[in-house]
Write a structure and sequence with these properties.
Elements lengths: L1 H8 L23 E7 L13 E4 L6 E10 L7 E9 L2 H4 L3 E5 L10 E4 L5 E4 L7 E4 L4 E4 L2 E7 L11 E7 L17 E7 L6 E7 L16 E4 L2 E3 L6 E4 L1 E5 L13 E8 L5 E7 L3
Parallel strand pairs: 1-16, 2-17
Antiparallel strand pairs: 1-3, 3-12, 4-11, 4-13, 4-14, 5-12, 6-7, 8-9, 10-11, 13-17, 14-15, 18-19
Length: 285
């Protein structure tokens, strides 16, 4: 148990996940799990149904595209996860595109919106409901399960992210139970992507970016990670799949982008006893 907790809490560059309780009873682990990024399907915007390939016109004004990180698993046994992602694309436009995270505890919609839980009960809230939670139809209460940490910055040097960077960390506060009938009926987290007016036409990819969050290099704690007691899902173990998305501005074109994620550790240097620095290059844009 101690090993499990230390691995998750060491994801310090993106989230501090300490302080959450870990369930004592664990279901059988999935052979593999996954995470993907797509348009936020319950946003109510014109982009909601466009999935992993969104098209926008930024010629008339700023455009906000709500996107979401989704968990793809068959068994509701995930105890903690961490997801990190970044934007790539034509430099003329990529530097102006921004991410903003949506706090699961805060209102997101202008007014209450109706959703349906796994029990078939309808509930209305102004929050953006997340994948692990519950609705008590007797008391009319929606409950978020888990502790969240977020990041949204213009870049992240330590991750090798030249442009907009986002991250979410989550850990259970009780047994993991899905709010919907599947793990991805509701997102892990929602982010708003702002494309400024006049952004250069092109294909802008939003892909997962994997790097070692232990800056000393003594431990390998990948930034994209799903854990439960006794099982770790990550790219190194070959049991974690990651899929990104593309936002096409105008007629598209520009630099080639990809929704696949490839990570390559290019250099590891020791700086005069100050620890180990790892530089990671991410393919796809």
């Amino acid at each position: 148990m101690k090993k499990f907790i230390s691995a998750v809490t060491s994801l310090c560059m993106t989230a501090t996940l300490a302080g959450a309780a870990v369930p004592a009873v664990i279901n059988a682990a999935d052979a593999s799990k996954g995470m993907y990024i797509a348009a936020y399907a319950q946003s109510g915007t014109e982009y909601a149904s466009q999935g992993t390939a969104v098209k926008v016109d930024a010629s008339a004004g700023d455009v906000v595209v709500p996107i979401a990180v989704y968990l793809d698993e068959a068994t509701a046994d995930t105890q903690a996860l961490n997801a990190t992602f970044t934007l790539t694309g034509p430099a003329a436009g990529a530097s102006g595109i921004k991410f903003a995270y949506v706090d699961a505890a805060a209102d997101y919609f202008d007014s209450a919106k109706t959703f349906t839980s796994s029990s078939g009960a309808d509930f209305s809230i102004a929050q953006a409901p997340v994948f692990s939670g519950a609705y008590d139809d007797e008391f009319g209460e929606y409950t978020v399960n888990g502790t969240f940490n977020y990041a949204a910055t213009d870049k992240m040097d330590g991750a090798g992210a030249e442009y907009a960077y986002g991250a979410v960390g989550w850990m259970v506060t009780s047994d993991n139970y899905w709010l919907g009938s599947k793990s991805d009926d509701f997102p892990v987290a929602v982010f708003d992507v702002t494309i400024p007016k006049g952004t250069a036409d092109g294909d802008y990819a939003i892909n997962f970016i994997t790097f070692n969050t232990d800056s000393t290099g003594k431990k390998n704690n990948p930034s994209n990670l799903i854990e439960l007691e006794g099982t770790r899902y990550c790219e190194d173990n070959g049991n974690l799949t990651l899929q990104g998305m593309t936002i096409t501005v105008g007629d598209g074109g520009g630099e080639e982008t990809s929704t696949s994620t490839t990570t390559t550790t290019t250099t590891t240097t020791t700086n005069g006893g100050e620890g180990t620095t790892t530089t990671t290059t991410v393919g796809g844009g």
